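Proteins fold reproducibly. Consider a sample protein:
=====
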Amino acid sequence: MLRTAEHVLDLIGETALLRIPSLSRLTGSEIFLKCEFQNPGGSVKDRTALGLVREAMERGELRPGMTIVEGTAGNTGIGLAIVAKALGFKLLVVMPKGQTPEKERMIRLHGAELLLVDACPFKDPKHFYHTARRIAEEHPSSHWWANQFENLANFRAHYTTTGPEIWEQMGGRVDALVSAAGSGGTIAGTSRALKERDPKIEVVLADPYGSGLKSFVETGEFKSEGSSITEGIGIMRLVANFAEARVDRALKVSDRSLVTLSRYLRDQDGIVLGSSSALNAVAALQTALRLGPGKRIVSFACDLGERSYSKLYQDDFLRQQGIEVDSLSIEELLAKQA
């Protein structure tokens, strides 16, 4: 049924599942993407933003007239901007410099204030996370810090909506869930919800280079190598939301692979993915090839490619990063993953 909404926030959630024709045909398994770009802010982080704000209002932490403060690489800021405006709050987004200008424009477009800070290691007090926390702590009566990494309202937003939606849409037949982790809320809430319904579902973490999560899953220690053009994906510390995830296996995905697959899906299926979504798609492909034909695998189209245009879809930028463009065919990619 077509739904009628009374409020923009009613449009968050209940997103479609899209079967990817080309990858399903190539692997003999059904590979699905949860179309989180259908949310009004264009990403999965709308669910997180709404969950964070609603719980804070219910607890009395966020009151009329206050300003929401959050540090983010982009999509959570956009989601919070929509939620804040819809509910009558102001928003201050603290973002590290170097993210795509598309995300900066979207945050400003939705009426939020944007504070750009120098990118630096997490231990530096000038890190965007610490800057957002400090601003809120210095103005406790007028500012509320969303704290998406440690605030378990993030996890609960996906535990109560995303996971149950997937289970219902798949008719209770899911072999694997594949997801990257930024704050960890999506993979945590969704994996918990699905494994409570079927413990045999395999949960696979998709991790870019530069992140230590794959190492943590396998050894309990955070170690990383290399770097990635993906934004807001990967963590080098254990945060409360990711601690709730139920992960069985972790995969490392190279920028070269996600660049190749992003163009393949665009050309074959008309699906233009952002960098984190393309990373998920590569890991879903790897999982399908490992499990063999006849499986049903679900991952996330976290957002669409317009927010990654100036990086993922700009050949000059990719070459500057040392990423070979159009040098890896889909056949070679499949051979590498098998």
